[in-house]
Amino acid sequence: MGEAIYPVPESWASGALVNAAQYQDRYVRSVNDPEEFWREEARRIDWIRPFTRVKNTSFHEADFGIRWFEDGTLNLCANALDRHLAERGDAIAILWEADDPTEPERRITYRELHEQVCRFANLLKQQGVGRGHRVTIYLPMVPEAAVAMLACARIGAIHSIVFAGFSPDALAGRIKDCDSSIVLTADEGLRGGRKVPLKANVDEALNQCPGVTSVIMLRRTGADVPMLAGRDVDWHEGVASQSADCPAEEMGAEDPLFILYTSGSTGKPKGVMHTTGGYAVWASMTHHYVFDYRPGQIYWCAADIGWVTGHSYVVYGPLMNGATTVMFEGVPNWPDPSRFWQVVDKFGVEIFYGAPTALRALMREGDEWVKKTSRSTLRLLGSVGEPINPEAWEWYHKVVGERRCPIVDTWWQTETGGTMITPLPGATALKPGSATLPFFGVQPMLVDNDGKPIEGAGDGCLVITDSWPGQMRGVWGDSERFFQTYFTTFPGLYFTGDGCRRDADGYYWITGRIDDVINVSGHRMGTAEIESALVAHSRVAEAAVVGMPHDIKGQGIYAFVTCNAEVEPDEALRKELVQWVRHEIGPIATPDIIQFTPALPKTRSGKIMRRILRKIGENDVSNLGDTSTLADPSVVDHLLANRPAT
Ligand code: 6R9
């Protein structure tokens, strides 16, 4: 079957920030002379003290280290707000749309946002927060979440956002790991017409976190929630008495900006740490070029701030570029599946950036929901979070974008800070399902399992050979783990954990995770995390979790569970375990299938043979490969004979 190719539309080729020839030329310069290239690009940032040193990085054990612009100083909040005040103070910074379409929108100008951030930063200071302190943010998609992030950046505090869909246990784990003494939350969140008891979750989490001395709570729904005297502060009451003057701290380029927990192949989520200077350059530059962003355009990234996409492309990237960024509290299919496109029409959105899982869910509802809206303002579409299947890509292109909008399918990770492999709309011919070509300064390589480079077209493990400014700088609280996790599988190379194919045109096709991470609706889940939640249940002896193909979510969660000897597993226990996992981690970790089994397939040395379980999960059981090293091969027959219907 021939691959579809969509050439750059004429209007884009002539009018874009970067055309094909410029992309080629600048890409080559970016990798041949990174010093010169980045010295130039970093001028997009207002530095307080300009850097003299550009790049000081090594992926090798002997001199491992990643430092960019290291002797420069800056403040990221000032770059996102103060620098715009003179020229665009009255332009809208945040356009907020509530969950409930009948609730009025909020339009916040740069000047107003600046004032709110300064007041809130002063409240944080009054609560004892200063440079380097960790602030946990557990807020829904409301403008105050952006205010909180920017206020931390302003005073040099390090924010750690925990997705508001995570459970009290998951929240507590993240609070303790980074040792934060303050939590920012709301009484309740609102999503798809349902209330999420955020403050109650915080209260429950804090039973495990004696170190937290202060909670600032935003009233979102007005629910009657208990406030603990001496600990809990009402957001608006606290802010009311604060001055609107708050100087921005002078931060070193390599001072930490934020921590964001993400799943890896081991049980405990890692606190991915990003620093200030390189991240600022990377987030603003990628947002500028990938979306071809020009001031005044209405831009909407539909990600939650609880994920890295929300950090870089709802808040930091767009605001550094003086954008009008849409923030949406709700979900794509409530009150009905037109919701996204109604918001596009309401605000005149020109650039829309969303996740394949949402597109697949909307596609299933039929084209009418899209077609009854205008979408005439849309000029560019984006995709992020997981591979987009060509069918969903074509639907996005034809039905949503009416063939007029290029689609930028952006591959990147929490660890990379911003987009890495992506089309540029005026430069790159598109192939549905391919993230296409590397962004400036990104040097991807494919290697086989032994680390041998694959030249030309081929399939392999995706690694990056040299550093880029937005790269993570460490795992919070564990100086060894960063190097161990990313640079030892293939020494001297950054290992992404993704498999990838490169075609004859040099285009990259991400094939998905090749480690024990699964991607559920664009959210990373470590299988080990779900396993440890399952075995924490008193009736479970052992559990193994693998991914399975899922029409909407991309991947679903398939759990093999062995119960304690005296337990007779039944439907009631199955339901109980599903609820248990939801409670332990959060609804995103809900198992799709639980298969009870008297035993798991193990090697004689006792290792679970995940390869076999993965194949069963993928329903690819005709060839299970070599099972001769299994301690008891009959276990596999039993698993196959008792597979639940899907
Ligand atoms: C930004 C983000 C990272 C993992 C990554 C990969 C998958 C993200 C993708 C994609 C194919 C894309 N992924 N974007 N796969 N095409 N355009 O999602 O960060 O949550 O850390 O997930 O997501 O597997 O390794 P994060």
Describe the 3D structure.
This protein is an alpha/beta fold and 646 residues long. The chain folds into 3 domains: 314 residues, Rossmann fold; 142 residues, Rossmann fold (3-Layer(aba) Sandwich); 122 residues, 2-Layer Sandwich (GMP Synthetase, Chain A, domain 3), CATH 3.30.300. Helix content is 31%, strand content 23%. The protein contains 21 helices and 31 strands. The chain has an 8-stranded mixed β-sheet, with helices on both faces. Strands 5-4-17-16-18-19-20 form a 7-stranded mixed β-sheet, with helices on both faces. Strands 22-21-23-25-26 form a 5-stranded antiparallel β-sheet. A hairpin with a 5-residue loop joins strand 21 and strand 22. Helix 2 packs across helix 3, helix 8 crosses helix 9 and helix 14 packs across helix 16. It is globular and about 75 Å long. It starts with 9 loop residues before the first helix and ends in a 5-residue tail after the last helix. The model has no long low-confidence stretch (mean pLDDT 96). Bound molecules: ligand 6R9. The site of ligand 6R9 has 24 residues, from helix 12, strand 19, strand 20, strand 25 and strand 26. Ligand 6R9 binds next to helix 12, strand 19, strand 20, strand 25 and strand 26.
